[in-house]
Design brief:
- The complex is a heterodimer of chains A (332) and B (434).
- Chain A is of the alpha/beta class and 332 residues long.
- Chain A has 14 helices and 9 strands.
- In chain A, strand 3, helix 6 and strand 4 form a beta-alpha-beta unit.
- In chain B, strand 7, helix 2 and strand 8 form a beta-alpha-beta unit.
- Classes of the chains: A alpha/beta (332), B alpha/beta (434).
- The interface between A and B is large, with 35 and 40 residues.
- Chain A: It catalyses: carbamoyl phosphate + L-aspartate = N-carbamoyl-L-aspartate + phosphate + H(+).
């Protein structure tokens, strides 16, 4: 009856933008994985011609090690010029708005902006106001799409009988992924919970109520809440641990000893409940809190592979945003 | 003052129960005659409005607008805001006190109401209930009332302290005016920018719970009951922009018990849900926030069964640069004066089946009564000549760029409207004509 205005306003964004995993079809995911695989096989010199002379800006309002470095190295490996602007050493400190910062970067020739920002939705603002392709490198508690893509690639590489250079609605059939920890504040959890079920996986979210409210179930089909970590682990082919985000707790009190007791992934627990499960962590890890050192360094761990997959997946995303020959032609 | 004739229209006057063809004569700023069609045709009027096929109704009354003057005239002025009101069919608006400085003094109130501000329609104000709207010390209610205050409110800043709210209700009751409360327990809403629920979780935004609204409403109702018992006064609580079923239920029960509670609902709360935020559209950000469908339905039910007394827009203009920000940083509020009638007719009349008379009561007679404007909100002979003439069947799409308001922050840009204002007459003067 009032449907015409119930529908949210649709904005348009530059082709090649990646703001949310919801923007990606399974075919898009497949193309990104395929390009990532091909890039790894290409000779370095050839790869460096793909985006030669192109300008990419990294705009970081939050600190980052993995995401920033891998985007930067990915851009450079494709021959692009990069510039890093952070909130600390720029006019952002003087109160310049996100819009004006974006317009300034565009005026300086940036053809693509990689944005990390503490406010959920900030990449949408930047993309709308500049018209430049924007890659979301993590926005507040919302999403971290490139992380979910590199996580998919990691799973497909490490789980037996899978193909990491393509994706279908069945790529992760029969795979149960347990995501444990501070789901409420985690953009990694949201991106994975939205993406993995579309590739056939079952996602079990695990954590105490204050960090994992029941409303998380509404993230979509294929998502389940299991409070008992041991019970969840027994069903897991993949277990993804998350850091407690002290910076986003906003007054929430947490009994850390109790948390460790119930939710830490340690060697004993892993051996008893899921000896073959793949162990993942988007980083940064707090060893001894959500994960023990022996598990992080152990044979089940794919944590370093996740990091290195960041390079190839983010290279593919940059090509998708900027390659003038057409993204699909890279795959030929 | 020259005569205005409005001929051949369908007169809908909820106050007198009239809904039939009548001709209307406005003289000296008053309704001079309301007669059978054709009976006024021999009068020589300076202006004649042919209202064939149109509805003629009492001018709309909005008890909750933000006109931003003094202090933030880049967003709106009294002149531009009231021009938007006229275009929307409103003839009376009540300005909230959250200007800069806060309207908490007689001098401030007089400045605001002065003819020099250039109000196009009748402007009233509700000054602050506490100095600077800081929630600590009451303003001078008696002096402000004498200078024209229709009631008192700290608007966007709810009066949280029980003792202060109690004191305010008692002082207002002695003057026979309402305390208008923005019901939000701000202890529960720190860092929140939208409604709590699945949409907020998916968007990664902290959400305001329905309890944040209902707790204050329940507390205020408890205070009313206590004051009636201990002080033998009958305080009037007016709850602003009600948005949740739970708070509505508390009001429904309070009314059943005979307490003097009234409340308003905003068009956006009966039209949209939090899904309208979409890709972090800051033009769908306001406080109270757009709620879930169940709460929208509760507001619709409250409008139908009389729990909601009136429609108010909470017209809250903001400059483009303020809304083009990160969702959490962007200010709350949307413009609403030019879309209220079109949405009310589309959603409440066409979709929900409420009668035109009921909707006009919600938008004129009832809000006028809430702030005790006895000679407005009616077309009875002798009333002030505030009239809106509109085409109830016109379907059109609102374009924000055409708005008379200085600001264009609306989620209804391009939205379909039912019913279009043809003319607005304020105190006998035609102040808007399509």
């Amino acid at each position: 009856m009032t449907q015409e205005s119930q529908r949210p306003k649709k904005f348009s964004y530059a082709a090649g933008s990646l703001l949310s995993v919801a923007d990606l079809s399974v075919e898009d995911v497949s193309a990104i994985l395929s390009v990532a695989s091909q890039l790894e096989r290409r000779p370095t010199a050839e790869r460096a011609r793909l985006l030669a002379g192109r300008r990419i800006a990294l705009l970081f309002y939050e600190s980052s090690t993995r995401t920033r470095t891998s985007f930067e190295l990915a851009a450079k490996s494709l021959g692009a010029t990069t510039t890093l602007v952070s909130d600390k050493s720029s006019s952002i400190e003087k109160g310049e708005s996100l819009k004006d910062t974006g317009l300034t970067l565009r005026a300086l020739g940036a053809e693509c902006i990689i944005l990390r920002h503490p406010s959920s939705g900030a990449p949408f603002v930047l993309a709308r106001e500049t018209g430049v392709p924007v890659l979301n490198a993590g926005d507040g508690m919302h999403e971290h799409p490139s992380q979910a893509l590199l996580d998919v690639r990691t799973m497909l590489m490490r789980l037996p009988g899978r193909d990491a250079s393509t994706a279908t609605a069945k790529s992760l059939d029969g795979v149960t992924v347990v995501i444990t920890g501070d789901i409420l504040h985690s953009r990694v959890a949201r991106s994975n919970a939205l993406l993995l079920p579309r590739l056939g996986a079952k996602v079990l979210l695990c954590g105490p109520e204050p960090l994992l409210p029941e409303v998380a179930l509404h993230l979509g089909a294929g998502v389940e809440i299991v409070r008992d970590f041991d019970a969840a682990l027994r069903r897991a082919q993949v277990v993804m641990m998350l850091r407690i985000q002290k910076e986003r707790l906003a007054g929430l009190e947490l009994d850390l000893a109790n948390y460790i007791e119930r939710y830490q992934l340690n060697g004993e627990r892993l051996a008893a409940r899921a000896p073959d499960a793949l162990v993942m962590h988007p980083g940064p890890m707090i060893r001894g809190l959500e994960i023990s050192g022996d598990v992080a360094d152990g044979p089940n761990s794919a944590i370093e592979l996740q990091v290195s997959n960041g390079l190839s997946v983010r290279s593919a995303l940059l090509l998708r945003a900027l390659y003038t020959g057409g993204f699909e032609s890279v795959t030929v | 003052m020259s005569d205005v004739l409005i001929l051949n229209g369908r007169v809908v006057d909820p106050a007198s129960g009239i809904d039939e063809a009548r001709d209307l004569l406005l003289r000296d700023g008053k309704i001079a005659a309301l007669d059978k069609p054709g009976s006024l045709k021999n009068i020589e009027a300076a202006e004649t409005i042919d209202a064939s096929g149109l509805v003629v109704a009492p001018g709309l009354v909005d008890v909750h607008v933000h006109l931003r003057e003094p202090g933030q005239t880049y967003k709106e002025t009294i002149a531009t805001g009231t021009a938007a009101a006229a275009a929307g069919g409103f003839t009376t608006v009540v300005a909230m006190p959250n200007t800069m400085p806060v309207n908490d003094s007689v001098a401030g109130l007089e400045w605001m109401l002065s003819p020099q501000r250039g109000a196009v329609v009748k402007l009233f104000a509700m000054p602050a209930a506490t100095m600077g709207s800081m929630g600590a010390t009451l303003t001078d209610f008696a002096a402000l009332h004498k200078a024209g205050a229709l009631g008192f409110t700290d608007d966007g800043k709810p009066i949280l302290e029980d003792a202060i709210m109690r004191e305010a209700l008692i002082a207002a009751a002695r003057l026979g005016v309402p305390i208008s409360q923005h019901a939000e327990d701000t202890h529960l809403t720190g860092g929140c920018s939208m409604n709590a629920g699945p949409v907020a979780f998916r968007l990664g935004l902290r959400g305001m719970t329905i309890e944040a609204e209902s707790r204050i409403v329940e507390r205020d109702i408890r205070l009313l009951r206590e004051i009636e018992k201990s002080e033998h006064l009958r305080p009037h609580l007016h709850v602003q922009h009600i948005s949740t079923g739970r708070a509505l239920e508390a009001i429904r029960e309070a009314k059943r018990q005979g307490l003097h509670v009234t409340c308003e609902a905003a068009p956006h709360h009966f039209t949209l849900t939090d899904e309208a935020i979409g890709d972090y559209d800051t033009n769908a950000k306001m406080n109270p926030p757009l709620r879930a469908e169940a709460d929208r339905q509760a507001v619709l039910a409250g409008l139908a069964d009389g729990t909601v007394d009136c429609i108010a827009t909470d017209h809250a203009p903001h400059a483009a640069h303020e809304k083009e920000q990160e969702f959490e940083r962007a200010p709350n509020g949307i413009t609403g004066l030019e879309t209220a009638l079109g949405l009310a007719l589309r959603v409440l009349h066409r979709a929900q089946g409420l009668s035109l008379s009921k909707i006009l009561s919600l938008m004129s007679t009832s809000p006028a009564a809430i702030v005790s404007l006895a000679d407005r909100g009616s077309l009875a002979v002798g009333s002030i000549a505030d009239v809106v003439v509109f085409d109830p069947a016109a379907q059109w799409n609102f374009a924000a760029k055409d708005s008379r308001s200085k600001s264009k922050n609306t989620p209804f840009d391009g939205a379909s409207m039912l019913g279009r204002v043809h003319a607005t007459v304020s105190e006998g003067r035609i102040v808007f004509r399509q």
